[in-house]
Fold each of these.
Amino acid sequence: MIQAVVDGVLTGGVYALMAAGLTLIFGVMDIINVAQGIFVVLGAYLSYVLSVHLGIDLFVGLLITMPAMFVVGVVVQWVFISRLGERERTAMSILATYAIAIMIEGILGLVFSDNYVELNAWYVTRSYHVFGFYLPYIYVFGFVLAAVLLGAIYLMLYKTRFGASVRASLQDRSAARLVGVNVDRVATITFGIGVAVTAAGGMVYGATNSFNPNTGYDLISRLLTIVILGGLGSIGGALGAAVCMLVLEDVVAVVWSPVWAPFVFFAALVVVLSVRPTGLFGRSSARAQ
Amino acid sequence: MRRVPSVVGGRNLKAGGLAAAMAVLIVFPLVFTNPTVTSIAVFTLLFMASATAWNVFSGYTGYVSLGHATFFGTGAYLFAIVAMRFNLSAGSSLFALVPVAGVAAMVVAVPFGLVALRTRRHTFVVITIAVFFIFQMLAFNLGITQGSSGIQVPTPNWSPWTFNNPFYYVSLGIVVFATAVSYFLRRSVLGLQLLAIREDEDRARGLGVPAGKAKLTAFVLSALPVGMAGAVYAYFLGQIFPQFAFSPLFDLSVVLMALFGGIGTIAGPLLGALLLESLQQYFTFQFSNGDLYLVIYGGLFLAVLLLLPRGVIPTVTDYLSRRRARRSSAPAARDSLTQPIGEPRTSPIAIVTGKAP
Amino acid sequence: MTVILEARGVSKRFGGIHALDGCDIEVAQGTISGLIGPNGSGKTTLFNVITGYERVREGEIRLDGRAITNMTPEAVFRLGIGRTFQLTRVFGRLSVMDNMLVASQHDASWARRAFRKAGSHGERAKALELLEFVDIARLANEPAATLSYGQRKLLEFAYVLMADPEFLLLDEPAGGINPSLINTLAERIRALNKEGRTFLVVEHNMEFVMGLCHNVTVMHHGRTLVSGDPETVRRDPRVLDAYLGGVGEDEEADGADGAGAPGAPVSDES
Ligand SMILES: Nc1ncnc2c1ncn2[C@@H]1O[C@H](COP(=O)(O)OP(=O)(O)OP(=O)(O)O)[C@@H](O)[C@H]1O
Ligand SMILES: [Mg+2]
């Protein structure tokens, strides 16, 4: 039981990282990147290639995969997303990223087939024993990695000039444009960063779960649940929601049955939204003039 | 209001066209008797009905639902479970379950809509996906659905040569029904209110439009043909599995079809489904590689989004009416059957080159 | 004199901004009342609260003595309050005629009429008549998005009238309207007032307000400052102070020009 809570917090950190990317993209660009799930899987496969074929350590490999995913993000944003018109932007962006997701899924399927694979390293199978808890190294390392990257995002947002432009765009895109922020450039880089973190998320995910190209659906539905519960566009909310949901899921898996754990995940979303349509941490806006 | 003579002519032409199309659809399986062809036709009709029904809600209100597969799966499972539980024997009389399946989908749509429609925009889209996943998970895990081993549905022992025909005509019936709903709704008070909600929901409410009731009614109504299509699908395939009855690709396909033809129009989803589903079925017969298919499908989807964001029908009618206007220099006739929502007169060139606003 | 609308102690805060801070207002039945005040004094917010677009925690609003605080916009509309928006909100992709029909109210319950054909003969005739009334009937079949700002203002005014509201709240009805049409607009409002409808009009065009209204209320910092007949309000020194102060705060120094002549605090600023 307590073990389940600890596990939930540790895995929650990794989900928080992936969700932070998603919610950051939403906040700045007002689009939901449905491809975030498949990007995580893509990141996991990149780590897989590096570790299996080139023998590069998973964590060291991030030095290659994260920039690579950044470039993927920038290219996707530049080639597809930025070309969508302003009309029906919500619907269009969701559909476009969904289409990108199924294309990537198909490409991964062609290259790697549908067989499940796993990432391996010495720290994947070993674990610490602390106070009678059983803590796999990879969970701990993954959590630390997520915390470091989230800290980096935080520093980037609050301590750099670029971060100030991002925050301005988060608040109000047109106002940011008026005060001279190059919103399109900010959007492209933010999209790149939001996708780059999936490389790290994907690596940890791949080391703790087996995955295949279809895994993206499972991931994206969880990530969407987390960002909606956290209140769209709120990074802190995404962190809180990620940890809450993963703990809830792990606890349900222990006290009830692992089969129903994901069910609880979505049921919680439905229940929360029927009480608070703006999510757990969200606030309502919409100004009538 | 000036009446341009060509409008009257256009209306007769339209009625004639409709009658001709109906005639073609009715004789189609009698002329093309190849079972492969008629089987493609059945799937195509089911998607024409589903895309039209989806459009009745999402196209008119602007609330993009990615959860209509819930209704499709509900219809399919209701059909399969009832047939299995009551040991019903196969035959034409089993088609009587099709409307029942549609009603079951409507029943599911009520609580679904009550929860989902409290939210807007992105949150609405996400909650429809979440509800869909809940249903898929239920189908995998409940006893009554027999989990991942699926359910066998009795298969009629009709001659293989005409086996598809009853399915074809029932599906055609659903298409006609869905189109009629779409058509009459479009002209009704409710239809106008839905369009107003799409434009500015709060403003519509401030003018006395009961937005909650209107949206829920449209949502529940749009579940009906989709549930019916699901039932026919289950019967036609002879067995169902959770991942096919509740498929994420279903919604994507339906949205793509509506988008391709023209969201918010009546003919758009029909045309989109006709082109894309028959193409898709053809591809499935040609290449058995599902992954290649995903790449092609995703690529096509993106191409439509970027190059034809308004859909084929509005783009073409716009082009035609502009040409007519140029030739006769009379005001362009607008027709609500094909014209979604008047407005932006983007040049077709701009649309094709992706420079449309 | 019976009071048709009464607001007491209404407060509304947006973050740290007190958009309304214990605002009181009374509107007498059958009058044309003006509501003026510097930019940001809370006029639009008060409209939003009255018509259900914003919810409040403090204060009470009564219509004919009945509390209507925090009702939904639909409910408020059905009680016979129609309003227009400062930045117009028309249904852009619907035709002007369809915009009119959206707002038409029926006696039959919604469930019974929802599936009927939109726009009966009578409704269409009435819509055309009203469009004629505001002089945009020739645009009936154009999508509303193609109208100019002023035409949209007129359309909003017309479609609100479709439901025969007893009480109309107009937020800057003359903004963006061709000056030669402004007098016609005032005429229209007077004509409707003669039929017994009550008006509450927000407007920055002082000439328009002072000429049209029986009674003027001045708001400042979310509160009512003065209320009375146009002459009294015009003479009240606090009003001038409010405008000068308000302008200073909003750093719109050039807006103060109009206040040069006492008696006409701000002439035509928007
Ligand atoms: N939705 C909102 N969110 C945040 N602040 C708001 C909101 N609505 C109004 N405000 C603030 O409340 C104050 C009052 O605004 P309001 O629009 O009511 O003023 P107004 O009197 O109508 O001004 P104007 O003459 O410029 O139309 C302003 O400071 C405004 O910025
Ligand atoms: Mg205002």
Amino acid sequence: MRVRAIAGRIINQLRHDKRTMALVLAAPLIVLTLVYFVFQTNGQTFTVSVINAPKDMVSEMKSNDDYDITVRHDSKKDAVGAVRNGEAEAAVSADKDCSRVKIYLDGSNASDAKVIRAVIEQSAAAVVRDNAKDAVHDLKKTMAKNPAAPDIDIEMSEPDITAKYIYGSEDGSFLDSYGAPLIGAIIFFFVFLIAGINFLNERKGGTLERILSTPAKRSEIIAGYVLGFGALAVVQTIVLTLFVVYVLGMTMEGSIAAVLLINILTAVAALTLGMLLSTLASSEFQMMQFIPLVILPQIFLCGLFRLSGGWDIAGHFMPLYYTADALTAVMVKGLGYSDIALDAVVLAGCAVLFMALNAGFLKRQRAI
Amino acid sequence: MKTVELSGVCKAFGKKQILHDVDLGIESGEIFGLLGPSGCGKTTTVKIIAGILSPEKGSVKVLGRSMPDLKIMGRMGYMAQAAALYPSLTAYENLSFFGKIYGLKGSELAERIDHAAGIVGLGDELKEAVSAYSGGMMQRLSLAIALLPDPDVLLLDEPTVGIDPVLRAEIWQELRKLADGGSTILITTHVMDEAVKCGRLAMMREGRVTAEGTPEELINRSGKNNIEEAFIYYGSGEHESQSDSGQNNQSAKA
Ligand SMILES: Nc1ncnc2c1ncn2[C@@H]1O[C@H](COP(=O)(O)OP(=O)(O)OP(=O)(O)O)[C@@H](O)[C@H]1O
Ligand SMILES: [Mg+2]
């Protein structure tokens, strides 16, 4: 009853605060749309400047199923120049048998560079494969003619490819791999901040004290917050998921129920952490100061970016890491509940820990 | 039996000792005033009685039970010095929220809200957001919330600040009615014409209760003409220097 009263009040407060609600619901859509367009590549046209390459390789490139590749022929100097000033996305030079391929890339758009590099590598590999097949075929023919022929080692060579990034570096990905963790990060961010600020105002404005002067139990207060902001997380998850799936066309392999479960657990961990840290803040601005301390490191370490050893381990200490892992598992890989059980348990564990700490803080105020 | 009973209550914030050995007893059906200069510890005392601050030493009993006690808290109304409200909610939503927290529901909740809002003179304004309220309106709403549970014990920390004289008279009438009905009311105030309306008063100074009695008793004992002078007498430490000198005289005689 009291739990519902507190949850209802939180929902009422959110309802009255139209601006915050608009921000909470619309801002993430804008962010996701931006991510979508910035990293959009499928069906795009790329221009490759060929310095020299066997005909087979060029036709391989042109016949790529996923991307439109336009080929132009330049001298080495012109080719690099074309990449540099954006006329071409890549330049390539390969020797006759494609055993040596050199690619010059514009890495300033990391995901484009990755795509074009893959296309060129595939084409070179295809040529090498065909050549090898032909060679084996010829060899077999010769051997059939001459039964006394000695054993010959047949060596299949992989093309030796070196890629040189003219700008930027190799990393980069698409909405399909960014989208899922991003949804988790967005929910964590907003719930953390709004719940933290709400609880801060409750302490500063004296309403928490007033609630503590009634028969409300500490557990009821915390549960009320969980229920109220849990509802916010549900609404946000539904809006975000529908948007990325139906508007942006992101693949959604697994069940929406599993996504909801993970996002609710994420929201509970975020809101209890927000409540906890709000006891260290004395103003809304001080609450904002936790963003670079609590939110940004989690976003960097949660698995959105490929990390080297030590940092990857650090990521394991962040709740958002488990959110990102589980959401990727469900939304991208289409895995089921058993595969996200560990993530769910860790998130729930974080939430329980933060709740217990919150109850401890409230106990300092009122002994029971 | 005393409704509110404090004995030997000590409270410190950090190293600063705020209350020293406070003893207070309030009978049921009494309007009890707590007076004293700003910063003397009135609010701290009220919060300790409300159960939202715990003293380091001493015992606090309300209706025979040691505080904090959830059962008793359901029978207490507390109005903080600063109007503790949710500004983004309407006044009605504020009332309804705290009513539910007190365990009221359905038609009983609606009736209690009507009754409490009526006492403080809030009607159509209940639909408005509290952020659009004037200071006095917020104070009245805050008082209405304290009245919601139909409390046996009512703790009011400067309830009539910013409330106009007409409404103040009405509120006092209502408080008297509640007290006549057996409720116990503790009120802190800096307004002297309110102090004289209290059945009994306690004067505080620097975290100690320096005098206790009916307004007349305090005026007589201090040898002054009115309660205002008595307040200054007990609040400024004048009487301590006198009793000190009295002790000095005694020790001089001995
Ligand atoms: N949370 C706190 N932390 C530290 N000191 C505090 C705290 N609350 C009150 N104090 C100190 O305790 C003393 C008594 O405060 P209290 O609010 O009880 O005074 P008061 O008698 O109600 O004053 P006023 O008439 O101005 O309301 C003050 O000196 C104040 O500085
Ligand atoms: Mg005070």
